[in-house]
Amino acid sequence: MARLYIFLLGLVLPQFLMAFAQREQCTDLGDPAAMRRMRVLRALCPCMCSQARPVHSEDGGRATGTVPAAVTTFAAVGTSLLKQLQDHEGDRVETYWELERILQGDDGCLTSGVVNRLIAEASSDMRAAQGVTGDVKTAASDVLVALARSHFHFVMSELQSHLKAMGKVPDETVLLTLGKMAHSYALRCIPFVGMTLLTLRTVLSQVGSGQILHVVCSVLEQWSKAVNTYFGNREQCPFPLKGVAHFCEAIYPVFRYVVVNWLDCKDEEDKQAVLGAVAAMMGVLLHEEQHREHACEQLLWLLHQYQEVRDTSQVTKSLSYVLEILEGVQTPIPQGTALAISTAVHCQLSDVTKEPGPAHKAVLSRCIMLQAQSCPEETVVFLHSQLSGESEASCVAALGLLGALAHSDAPATREKLPQVVEAVRSVCNDPSAQVRRAVLEFIRELLSSGSESRWAWDVVGHIFIEFRRTSGRLVAGGLFACETQEDGALQALCMDILSSLDVSLRGMTKLLWPRLLQYVVPAQYSGMLIPLSCCLQALVERWERAGCKEEEEDLDGMDFQEQAQLPAPQALLTRLLVVAAAPYASSERTVAALQLLQALHGRIHRALGPVWATEIPLLLQYLEGKTESSVDSAEWEHRVLKFLRASLEPIEDKAWTVGLSQELSQQLGSSAPSSWEKFFLYKALGTTLAACRDLRHVQGQVLRFLQETSPVELSEAQGMISVVSHAAESHFHLVLDKVTMFSAAFTRGWFCQTSTGWKVQRWKKEKAQGIRAALMRTYSGIALHAPKEQLLTRVDKEIMGNILWLSRAKQRDLQLKLALVQSITEVSCAIQAVGNCSNFELSSKQEATQTLLDWIKGEPWGSLVYGVFQALEELSKLRPPLSRAENCNLLAVCCQSVLSYPSKERMNKRRKIVRAAVNMQVLHRRSMEDLGHLIETLLEAEETSACFDDVVHVLKGWLTSANEWERERALQVCAHVLGACKEQSELMRGRPCKQFGSLVGLLGTLTNDCLAASRKKAWVCLSYLLRMQAKTMKVVPQADEIRCLCEALNSPDTETLVETCTKLAKAVCKCIPPAQATDFLTAILDRLLHATPARARAVWKWVFIFLVECRKEILQEEGIKKALSPSFSSSFIQVPKILNTLYTYMQQSTHRPFLLHMVFLLARFHHEAVISSLLQKGLPMDRYDSDMVELWRSLGRSILGIQILRCLVEKLNRAGNNHLGTHSSACERHSHQTALETLSITCAISEVVLALRSTEELRQLLPHLLPSLMRRARETLGEERLLSPISSWRQLFLEGQVLEEKPCRIFLSAIELVLGKCMAQKWMRLLMNWAVWARLEDPLAHPEGVCLLSRAVLLYPATFSGFTNLKCGVWISEKKKPIMQCKKMVAVSKRYTIHRSPKILTIALRRFVNFTGGKIDKNVKCPGSSSMYVCPNQLENHSSMLDMQFLYRGVSAVPQDTLSAS
Predict the structure, then answer these.
(1) pTM for the whole thing?
(2) Residue 990: which pLDDT band, with cuts at 50, 70 and 90?
């Protein structure tokens, strides 16, 4: 089916394309859309190349063959484009380009008519004198050249006809087209060579300078090169063969004319054109012997052009072309000419004013190589002479040319290689970087030539010598930037040359093995290890593939000197281990060292193969994917030492291991002091001694290092410690015994040397301090490396005991203190590393801890040794645990030493050197971190949460410090501790924080600290504390909210930050347990005693949030208790505690208004509890000095004043309602308590009324307040008059709680104060005039006073309206003793008749006991006056008013003409 579709497509598509092409002939092809359609049509042409159509004979017979379908397509497109050209439609350049593309794929499909028309059209455009641009002419020329691919003779005939026309110089475009034809179709142009040159020769005389000269020279150059191409490819030419003489006869006249007339042209472009033509014609003439001499004479002219033209690249190309022809015809260059060529080429390469480009340099080198093949001796001698010149550029150019000769394969050149190498050796030590680079480039070319001569490979050593020289200069420093860059480039070049060595040739093992292996061990060649390792690995692989036979032959061929230069196996292992373990080397070098070790395992030791086959891949796997910065140097060093130990295990040869230790000791002596390499060699030596089976050798090495090490040199002491401690891994008891023996000998020798002179004694004292420090660190190092199963048996007395014994010096310098700290830390870590040691107790722990604490106490702030807190931290992890008192002491001492550190400003003043001050700050910052870790460890070690309480107790003193820097540091430590507790809830043992309230109070005030860092850390601490509390209380949703708030603390927006802080403070306050509310207030109010205004605002903010937002949580605990116990009292517990706290601080602080406002906030939500608590404080008798008076007055002035007063009135009415009996002790106590309570309430009422701002609300409360006060006054009056010996009032007076001799004065004063607030001053004066207060105070005149007082109250309009609902009750005088009767509700009515109406009528309505009936519920009217009206008097039935006894009715004064009542 697919074939059918293809067949149909082949039939239909050509017809479609023909129709499409005819349509396009009628279309304006200048339209871009039309041009795009033409491109599509052309693109479809190749797809039809496999289709065919029948070809009919001319007579109309049957088909005789097939024609490709693409023929019709090409013809159609070509015809369409030709029609466009003939009609001058569209862009002619674009049309020509389309035609050129089509013709490049045309295989003669165009008809002769189309070809003739196309040639005519293109020729017309090429020869047009006017109206045609140069682009059109060039495009037409290119179309003819493309058409010549299939119609060569048509095009060439057309061009030849134009060339011969009119006997004048042809058109430039015609000549250019001829040149293109010769360049593109060289062999097909051969039949037309004579004709073309003959025609050109006739018009040469008419050619001047300028463009026509350039074109003619180009034609001569291309046609001459076509002839040279023919000479080399005669067999491929389809035409009859022609001799060289035939072409020389045609070219020689033209050549002579050009040489005679055009060589002296002055124009630069003319010279360049003539150069190309002359060189090409010389190439033809050199093939004929009779013309060869004349042609060679022009070589000197050609070399002279280097001085004439600016762009010498064309000269060099022409010279190279001529020299290649000379090599082809095997014609020697004359000696003088050869020297001239070498000189000219060398000058071009060494000219620094116009340095040639890379392509030009390659052609120049090619010229020298061509000349050297003809006369090698002269060339080498010349270049050797240039090496000894003073010019750097000349030497560099000569070396470059010698390198080109060394890489040449010509036999004549290779014979001169020994001379060339010797010549280069003379400049190997040249100081110039350019010369040294050129030497290295020469070596590269020499080694890449594949020579098997020994003298050729001896130059490999110079690569390493040059690398060592540049490395030394770079390490020494002091170079300029350009010099550093040059040396770095030379190093890279050395490595590149070494990595490009080809070791695949036979005999390379013999040549390279001894020359490369000797550079593995020297440290100065470590940088070359990567390419060196690659070469050596390749040699080993080649040897293994060859089955060791070739390698044995090569090694047998080595002389004794070469074998002696090979490094020892131990030296190879040592150096490669050092390179592999280097922390600052690249990972590629480390990998190269490990891979080389694996390749050389058979040459190092035969037992290492199986071990390294397993261990080295593991090391390489660890390094995979890691960079220099990501590799932990300490971890990697530990792995390398472990690899060394594993490598030495299978080696049973004691002598080999001893030799390795000796090699390590030897390389130790050659290593730089205090270098990383030397430290590693110490550790490797200790590891080797641990694996050594020769115990006598191990013992001797340990004693040697103990005795010969200088303790003054810290690097040597550290090395000794490394050797001894690593050796203890397998020889623990032996090493520990030797160190103990040396320690004892040292102390004995020291004590007997105290009689020497002062200077000697001082030196010995310094040395003794160093030895003590070294021995202490040696003991700790032994503990770290000791076998775990052997350590605990000797660590307590023989290790820790000896360390403490060595530390007991009269004077401890810094070195000894550092050693003590480090030793205690390492020993503690070693004990913990043992694992299951819960039963082990370090008996010297307390002594070690106390030693460190005593030292911390005695040290000044500037000499605290870094690491002491870490030592205490590790010690605290060991058993036995310290007591709580010891832990508290430890915390106090450590906090004192760190937190009391001077501020940065004070430290800078004391330290004259800025760097010293910075170093001290760094040490202090690290000490702060260590202190936090120490506290965290103490919390982990404690089985209860008591340690956390101790930490908080210690930090509280620093959080409240007067120095801002101390507060900031305490906050930092607090943040660390709380952060640890937040992350590790087990530190709190699952219990809520008992110090939560007090901590919140402390941290809350610090959120407004003067230091921004302190403020931020305070919020961080609060967030940690809150999340910790939420976790222990299992408040999961709140914990999530807190986490979000903590993240928002980092917001840069100030408004967002303030809002977040407020939300966080609310969340914190809501988490305060009710039982800790007092702790919170106590902590936060402590800061108020000496607080600044800013801090007082912070305190106010926190207390406000606590009292307002957490008003429900304050009484939560009491509500729970009341729900659980029905008998629980209604009086609250937390509110009195809070009020007591506020009252206490009000007596001490200067911020009294602030505290009074806090009491107001508390009373706003818990007024009954606040009033009850305040009433229990005592009697506010002294109105000038009492804080209680100020409290009551502040409440009275507030908006809660009337509410407080109403509550007090209710309490006054309820006081003493519960009677317990008549003559019992309980009754007496109850009476005493009632009397005291009544007095307190009355005094409070007086202060509140005094401060009240609203008189109207007081008047409304007067019917409830005034009867209660009168009742209490009557009770006290009765008690006083009876003079009862068991009177409660008398007892209060005797106890001093009542200052007034007559208690009724207190109540009467309250009544006077209340009425003074409600009535005008004239009425109060009226009461004074009536002697009401004196009568009320007198028991005998008391009823009369009551009547007068009642009359005044009822007469005053403002007070009369308040008495609307009272109970019946009057005083009846019976034997001058007031008694109560009735107490029933009665109806009161009374009638008055007026004999004569006065101007002002005063009516007083009273209730009397002998009246009967209910309440007054009718209107009271006055006959004769319609304006007189009294509203019905209706009083609510209120339970608290059952005992009221008086009714005071309003009094009205009515004018005579308008009588009214109110």
Answers:
(1) 0.62
(2) low
